[in-house]
Amino acid sequence: MQVNYRIWGNETRVLRSGVDITFNFAGIILTRSQLLGGTAALLVLSIFFFWLWRADFGLRFRVLV
Prior knowledge:
The structure is a single chain. 58% of the residues lie in helices and 12% in strands. It has 65 residues and is an alpha+beta fold. The chain has one domain (3-64). The chain has a two-stranded antiparallel sheet. The longest helix is centred in the middle third of the chain and has 23 residues, at 32-54. The mean pLDDT is 84.
């Protein structure tokens, strides 16, 4: 038997009920979840590139490339 079935069981679970809030930008429809995911991805990438730009390890990494 798989470990995840032993821990959480095999019945169906609902992560979120209801309809998500939507936003319309110039004919593009985005949900709140999509906006939050995109914002989080941009934040993580920005922090990573800032770290590469400012850190000593980032300088060494750029030299190797």
